[in-house]
Structure formats: structure tokens, C-alpha cells
Specification:
The protein has 351 residues and is an alpha+beta fold. The protein has 4 domains: 4-12 and 76-163, Alpha-Beta Plaits (2-Layer Sandwich); 17-74, 3-Layer(aba) Sandwich (MutS, DNA mismatch repair protein, domain I); 171-222, Orthogonal Bundle (DNA polymerase, domain 1), CATH 1.10.150.20; 238-347, Dna Ligase, domain 1 (2-Layer Sandwich), CATH 3.30.1490. The chain has 12 helices and 13 strands. The chain has helices at residues 12-20, 45-48, 58-64, 75-92, 114-129, 141-150, 161-167, 181-189, 195-200, 203-222, 252-273, 305-319, and strands at residues 4-9, 29-32, 40-43, 69-71, 95-100, 103-107, 133-138, 156-158, 238-249, 277-286, 291-302, 325-333, 346-347. The strands form 3 sheets. It has a 5-stranded mixed beta sheet. Strands 9-12-10-11-13 form a 5-stranded antiparallel beta sheet, covered by helices on one side. Strands 3-2-4 form a 3-stranded mixed beta sheet. Helix 4 runs antiparallel to helix 5 (114-129) and helix 11 (252-273) runs antiparallel to helix 12. The longest helix is centred in the last third of the chain and has 22 residues, at 252-273.
Length: 351
């Protein structure tokens, strides 16, 4: 089985900002918006020692580290830096699956001395972009991903599946991608608190708690058994735009204005990608955190802001939010495909 590498740029957004503002090096830096409901996009390693992490409310992060320097995110700069990194990756490795601005899986089959080749690649990326990367190499995607996280920043970890099982046997199940907090809590309720225990868990017990499909999948993850397949092109099936308000909004006219703007931004992005979709949806989160989505499928695919905006506004008016709105979003799905069944409005259950 050819080795798989997972390459992850260390503290990507923060690192890009430090390259632009070198005077911030060595200081705790938080990349985040500044509104009362802003969340941390990422943080420098100097800030992480205070317990600050991605998706944490910025208000809380500021309490943990009052001296932290807040930098507003600049996604155009991050996309430019990402393109530079991935150009260098693709120049060295034929089969690459990009899974985010800052990470990718690489199929190392056919490379002479794959470890040495990856070390050279990491050096070239730093030389050309100033960014440091961590690398994990293993027989499958799961081992490679966990290995790349094991010794950040600037980590370089190569593991067989058996070595991964031994090294992380005492780690919590949530270390492994695909096992989120809710699943980890359910496993804990069964007395399964480590990956080693999960790997040895009776299949019948896991199936009884999680079902015939999810139960075996969890045990495979505990044993670091996963696919080695790399998909060079990941095509998004939907595109969306949403915004969280600094203060809840009750006024429907104001919500309609914002939704129209979001639809325009979304369609501009679709037009730039030369993609169109048939399913138009809105997302509304109320002040009590009830989240509702409604969708409608139209006869022909579109990237027309007028069409998307009109359908989105109809959905919003029909729903008529009963409480002040905290978050509003619009989405276009079934991109470039004509196989979406035509149907009426769909109402998702509150989360």
C-alpha cells in the first residue's frame, strides 16, 4: 500500500498575518472579528498556551489573555497564500487532494524516498512562502491526519497503523477525525474513554448503541483502519453565505435587505466559478438558538442574484421569524447537476 501524507500549514491564518506584520512575532495574536458575537478563527501558538482555540467566542478568548492582539481576518490574503502553497505541493506530487486552504492529502506512490521528498517539500514551501508545515505519513488517511497533528508546530511524524494504535491507545476517542463530542460522550457512557478501549470493544455492543453501520465504523477508527484513496478534485455540492449579527434583528425589512445582499455575494461567487444550482435555501437562527432551514428547488439551475434573492425572500416571508434573528444565511445547492428531485419547501427540525 503506497504511503499517504497529510500536510497541514501551522496556525495558517495567524502565520499569514505574522508574515504581513512581523512586529507581532512572539506575541499572542488572535485572528477574529471584533463584534460581541465574534469567534476566534485561529490563534498564534503564543495565544494557544492560554487555552485559546478556534471557534471559541472572542469575548472569552480576551478574558483568557487580556494582552492578546486582535487581528481582523483577511480571507483574500489567506486564499493567495494557500494558492502559493498548493502550487508548490502540486509541482512535487502528482495526486493531491486539497481539503481546505491550509491542508491536503498527498499520494506518495512512485516517489523515491517519500520521507526525504516530503522534508524537501516542507523546506521549499517555507523558503517560497515563509510558512511552516506539519506532516504526517501513514498507510491511510486516518493515520496520516492524526500523525500530522501529533507534534505541531513543524512536526514530521511517520507511523504504521500498528504504531499509531500503540502510540495513541491512551488518547480519547475524540482525537480521531469522525468522532465528535456527542459521539465521544456516548462512548464515555459505555465506559469507552480511550482509543485502545474502543479498538477492543465488542462489535455487538457498538452496534447496539450506534447501529449496524456506525458501530463498526467507530471500531475501525479506533483501530486506525481507513481508506487510502485520494480524490484529486473535491467538488462542492453547495455554496452559501451567512452572517451573525452583533445585535439580534426583529425588523423583517432589515432582514430582507441583508438577505438580498447575501444572495448577491453568493451569486457573484457562483458566477466566478461558472457554477449554477437549482436548490435555494435559507438558514435562520433565532435569539433562543433555534435554527430553521427552508429550501425550494426551481426548474432550472441559476446563478442569477435576482432569482436566488427572490426565492430566498419568499422563503423568509413565509417562515416569518417569530422571534428576533441572531443569524441569517442563504445557500444554493445541487450545483451543476440536474438530478435534484423537484419538491416543495422543507422545514428542518430545530437543532
Amino acid at each position: 500500500m503506497p504511503p499517504i501524507a497529510h500536510l497541514d500549514v501551522d496556525a495558517f491564518y495567524a502565520s499569514v498575518e505574522l508574515l504581513r506584520r512581523p512586529e507581532l512575532r512572539g506575541k499572542p495574536v488572535i485572528v477574529s472579528g471584533s463584534g460581541p458575537r465574534a469567534v476566534v478563527t485561529t490563534a498564534s501558538y503564543e495565544a494557544r498556551v492560554f487555552g485559546i482555540g478556534s471557534a471559541m467566542p472572542t469575548v472569552r478568548a480576551r478574558r483568557l489573555c487580556p494582552d492578546a492582539i486582535l487581528v481582523a481576518p483577511d480571507f483574500d490574503a489567506y486564499r493567495e497564500a494557500s494558492r502559493a502553497v498548493m502550487r508548490r505541493v502540486r509541482a512535487q506530487v502528482e495526486t493531491v487532494e486539497v481539503v481546505g486552504l491550509d491542508e491536503a492529502y498527498l499520494d506518495l506512490e512512485g516517489l523515491m524516498a517519500p520521507r526525504a521528498a516530503m522534508r524537501r517539500l516542507v523546506g521549499e514551501i517555507h523558503e517560497q512562502t515563509g510558512l511552516y508545515c506539519s506532516v504526517g505519513i501513514g498507510p491511510n488517511r486516518l493515520v496520516a491526519k492524526v500523525a500530522s497533528d501529533a507534534e505541531k508546530p513543524r512536526g514530521f511524524v511517520c507511523l504504521t497503523r500498528e504504531e499509531a494504535c500503540a502510540r495513541f491507545a491512551g488518547a480519547p476517542p475524540g482525537l480521531v477525525p469522525g468522532i465528535g463530542p456527542k459521539t465521544a460522550a456516548r462512548l464515555q457512557g459505555m465506559g469507552i474513554t480511550t482509543l485502545g478501549v474502543l479498538a477492543r470493544a465488542p462489535l455487538e455492543a457498538l452496534e447496539a448503541h450506534f447501529g449496524a453501520n456506525r458501530g463498526p465504523d467507530l471500531r475501525r477508527r479506533g483501530r486506525f483502519e481507513a481508506s487510502a484513496a485520494i480524490t484529486p478534485v473535491r467538488v462542492a455540492v453547495s455554496e452559501s453565505r451567512e452572517t451573525t449579527f452583533d445585535a439580534d434583528i426583529r425588523d423583517l425589512a432589515r432582514l430582507e435587505e441583508i438577505l438580498g445582499r447575501l444572495a448577491g455575494e453568493l451569486c457573484a461567487r457562483l458566477a466566478a466559478q461558472e457554477r449554477r444550482g437549482r436548490t435555494i435555501a435559507i438558514k435562520v437562527r433565532l435569539d433562543d438558538f433555534t435554527t430553521v432551514t427552508r429550501a425550494r428547488t426551481i426548474p432550472a439551475p441559476t446563478d442569477d442574484a435576482a432569482v436566488v434573492g427572490a426565492v430566498a425572500l419568499e422563503l423568509l416571508r413565509e417562515y416569518a421569524p417569530p422571534r428576533p434573528v441572531r443569524l441569517l444565511g442563504v445557500r444554493v445547492a445541487s450545483l451543476d447537476h440536474g438530478d435534484e428531485p423537484v419538491g416543495g419547501d422543507q422545514l428542518a427540525l430545530p437543532l
